[in-house]
Predict the structure.
Amino acid sequence: MMGQYRRTAAFDEEEFEDDLVVMNTRTQAVVTINGTARVVWEALAEGASLDDLVALFAEAFPDTDPKALRRDVADILARLEEAELAVVADDDG
Amino acid sequence: MLYRLAWDGCAVALRCDDPRLVESVESYLDLAAEALDDDPAMACAADVARNGEGHRVRLPYGETATASWSDTTYLVLEAVAYGFALATRQLVVHAGGFIAEGGAVVCLGAPKAGKSSLSFAAWRRGFEVLGDDRICLDPAAGRASVYPKCLKIRLDGDAPPADMAELVKQGNAFVGALGDDRRLVLSRRLPGFAGYDAAPPLRALVCIERIDQGRSRLDAVPVVDVLDDVLTQAMFADRSPMDLVRLVKAHAPGGRLPWLRIAPHDSDAALGLLHAL
C-alpha cells in the first residue's frame, strides 16, 4: 500500500526503558514495540508513507540491504495495522 | 430456596435445597447468604438439589452430579467464585498473595505455577494470606484486596497433610475433588486469612514459575517479557489494561520484575527467598 500512514487517535502508551507498550483504547489490544518498530511508531505521529519510512532508515543505516529494510518496515506497518494502531490517513473513524 | 451472596457491591445468586450446604458456603467464604423469595427467572451461579449421597448441580454452562457433600461444596464454591468474576467491577489478577510487614506481596502465575503451594506455605509460616488464586488490585490506590475464593491445596493422595487433619475434624477444612483435581480446601474464617476489608498497599509484584528440578531461586525478568502473560491472566471489568501496565511498571525497578522459580516440594524455601524483597 502506497498511502500515508498515521497513528490511530485512540491509543495509550507507557514507556519501559527502550520498549514502548501501546494499547488501542478502542479494542484494548496491547502490543510492545522497541527498536525499529518504535522509530516507525514515533514517525507515524506526523504521518508517513512506506517510502518515507524506508528513506528515513536508509539514511540512518546506509549499509543495510534496501530490500531487507523495506521488507522489515513493511512488516512493522502490517503489525501496527493489525493491532489497529496504524491507519491509512483518513481511514480512522 | 434462593440465596444471595454479596461481596464488594456485587452479588451472586445460589439456589439450593440443602441448608447445610449453604451454611458451608457461608462459612468457607466468610460471606452471609441472604434468603430470598424464590424467583424462577433468577440467573444463578449454581442450582443445587439433593440427590442421594451427593447432589445434582446445575451451572450456567452445564449440569453435573456429585457423589459426596465435599465434592458438591467444592463445585459450588468454584461456581460462586466464577459468578463473582462475572459480576465484579474490580481488576482481578490470577495470583496468590500475602501480607508481609504491612504490604501485599502478590505472586502472579499461570495455573500450576505454585501459587497455592506458596500461599499455603505463607499461611503456615504465620503470614496473613489474601488468597491463592485470585487477588483484587486497585491500580489508582496501589493496593491489593481479597477475592472471595478459598485457599485450595492440591493433594498427592486422598488424605490431607497430617497437621491439617484436626482442621478437617473441626469442619474448617475439607477434601474435595473436581474430576482428578483433589484438593484440601481451607475456610476463610480460619485465623491467618485476611478479611474482605483488608486493603494493604502493594509491596511487591512477583512472577512465579514452577521448575522441574534444581533449587528454587529468585531472579529478575524484564517486564516486557512477561507482560503479555500478566495481561492475559487478568480480568479487567471496567478497568483499562494500561492501569495494570502502569501498576506493574511502578513495581518493577529498572523495568524488571522479581521472578521466583519454585523447585519441587520447595515452597517453604521459595517463600524464604521472597524475604529479600
Observations:
- The helical segments of chain B are 19-29, 69-87, 115-125, 165-170, 223-232, 241-250, 267-273.
